[in-house]
Description:
- There is one protein chain.
- By secondary structure, the chain is mainly alpha-helical.
- It has helices spanning 43-49, 55-74, 107-124, 139-143, 148-158, 167-184, 191-212, and strands at residues 2-3, 6-7, 41-42, 78-79, 87-89, 95-97, 101-102.
- It has a single domain (2-212), classed as Transferase(Phosphotransferase), domain 1.
- It contains seven helices and seven strands, in the order βββααββββααααα.
- The chain has a three-stranded antiparallel β-sheet with strand order 3-5-6. A two-stranded antiparallel sheet has the order 1-2.
- The N and C termini lie far apart (86 Å).
- Residues 1-32 have low confidence and may be disordered.
Amino acid sequence: MLQDGLPAAGLGEASLGEAGPGEAGSGEADLGKASPAPTGDPLDDRIRLGLEGSFVDRLAIARKLAKILADWHAREVYHAELDASFVLLDAMNTVNLTGPETKEKSARGANIAAFGVILYSLLRNEVYTANRGSIPNLEELYQAGYSPGVVEILEKCFRDNGRYSGFREILRDLEEVDHASRETHRTPWNPQLVVIVVLGVLAALAVLSAVLLP
């Protein structure tokens, strides 16, 4: 795939320190062997069709993308036009990133802000379509009951002062929100189950009283 005359860069579900932009998984290009083309559907299309999954599932997609971008930035390679259309998602929720690259360090902050827009679109399950460079209204996320932690991540992606310095910081905060969310939902409270348990205890006490009392 070519974007603006530049070769597309493809990464799968990469962990930090693995394949770099345009590489298939080795630290050095293998001459004579073409890297496999990235696979998946554009994330913006998946969101428009109704992306399935829980809050934790959507965080996982964001974390995979952040890992890829952290790896790019570690090599001083940046995405020139980052948005959800360049993020590919397959049936197994493996994330690939395509699109034009740049070595311009000024793109670092733009990548972080663009990642914030993608994260916002994932959370809302709605592609944010305002003019490039505009900031979504985060107040509605608070009102909708989203985790304050994830809203704070978005705020730090969009700030002019106090913005994240890189994607490793974003990854750290995403992992903290993910851990807190999993702990919160580990043993969900079920009102019907509580009623059944209480009624069972009362019935057992009634039987026990009938046996013990003359």
